[in-house]
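Q: Given only this backbone (217 positions), what sequence would you predict?
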């Protein structure tokens, strides 16, 4: 969505153009789908309280790019942002939300706080998981819980989700002092089952019982 009126200044736009670009897309990270490595950002924040962190806003992606460059320099595909004023609560990745599969088969994802994107894929994953009979908790999840949960086995799988990424398994979370997970991790069964179900709905292979799809042509 862009402003289209003849005006130069700082105020909310009064005339805009809303456009949607449709394009086929392959695996967001390229090549074979496999668990990715994620870099922990200790220095940067993706969005501030009272801002646009919950919206699909270009500025939110721009704010993540310097941290993303740091991640890539350290061999990681994405960056994880934390709320350092809230016990290092997990927020989201540079361009996608994050989910945890617990050992009892339930799912957990960070609760929306205004600084976390209210992603349509996030919403879809929650609904698909519930349709599959799984409990889903939206709550505060800290870096300590992630670390301890992987070590104890309480957290069985971790995955990211987003418009382009769909669902991508996470193998390792790391920075200069942390290393959580395994570089040899395989994509989890629950992660892949939810991915296949969601892709099935998107492509028409599975019934769309929630009225999510609109035929354009």
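A: Predicted residues:
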């Amino acid at each position: 969505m862009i402003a289209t009126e003849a005006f130069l200044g700082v105020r909310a736009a009064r005339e805009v153009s809303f456009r949607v670009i449709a394009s086929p897309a392959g695996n967001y990270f390229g090549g074979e789908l496999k668990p990715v490595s994620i870099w922990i950002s200790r220095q940067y924040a993706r969005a501030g309280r009272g801002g646009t962190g919950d919206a699909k806003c270009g500025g939110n992606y721009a704010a993540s790019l310097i941290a993303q460059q740091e991640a890539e320099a350290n061999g990681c595909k994405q960056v994880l942002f934390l709320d350092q004023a809230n016990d290092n609560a997990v927020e989201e990745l540079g361009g996608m939300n994050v989910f945890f599969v617990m050992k009892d088969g339930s799912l957990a994802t960070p609760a929306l706080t205004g600084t976390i994107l209210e992603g349509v894929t996030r919403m879809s994953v929650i609904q698909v998981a519930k349709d599959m009979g799984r409990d889903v908790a939206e709550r505060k999840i800290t870096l300590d819980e992630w670390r301890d949960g992987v070590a104890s086995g309480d957290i069985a799988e971790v995955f990211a989700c987003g418009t382009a990424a769909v669902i991508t398994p996470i193998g390792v979370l790391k920075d200069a002092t942390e290393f959580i997970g395994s570089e040899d991790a395989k994509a989890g069964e629950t992660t892949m089952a939810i991915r296949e179900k969601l892709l099935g709905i998107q492509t028409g292979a599975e019934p769309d019982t929630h009225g999510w799809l609109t035929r354009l042509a």
